[in-house]
Amino acid sequence: MFPPDQTAVPEQLSPTVADLTSLAHLTVQQVLTKYVSVKGLSISQMIHTSVKTRDWLGAVEPRNVRAAMKRVVEEITELDTQIGSLFEEGAVRGPNSDSSRRALSHNGSRIASSKYKYTPSDTECSLLNRLFNDQVEIFGAIQFTKLSILTGIIKIGLKAFLESVRLRTFGKFGLQQVQVDVYYLREYLWRFVEEERLLNFLLEEVISSAVDRCIDPVTMEPSVIMLLCEPS
Question: Is the CA virtual torsion 143, 146, 150, 151 positive or negative?
């Protein structure tokens, strides 16, 4: 008789199919999360640089959308094509339709109104408070769908936009340029996110912060903003 194989793995220690499946899922999840972080950082750096290097106090009256914002939309559109070839679309949480966008943009129009001024109650309603009150999920697990991946990337980019704006001081026309840029992003990015309410929330936070950081908060008429954002 041959001696027992000393290198054999005891049966109770052998990985099961379920164990291997779970490990594979965890590994893919980690890779996907890393991918979202890297792409989100790339978008963030683009936005941060565009905000940091601009003279917002001495800005002239807006005539168009800034090139950096157009580039952000182009990058997300390219990622949509790449990711869409590997992952299924995914489900939309809440209505993402033209009618819902008009309804959800009501607050944005209110912010864009030239007669609108922030009151202490608005200022006190901080990002953290709104997260709890509105139950908006800023950070969450990435699912294996195109919309979930793109939503994660966009959230990172818009959070960088918000933080960059909070570090700058704006003149009247600087604030109006932010309004134009935000409207443009809203019009194009809604189709790439799982939940449009989250997109509107983050973009309105950018406007809110710009108003708070502006020395002469006179905002632009919504109709003018829409005209400037029309495709040329």
Answer: negative
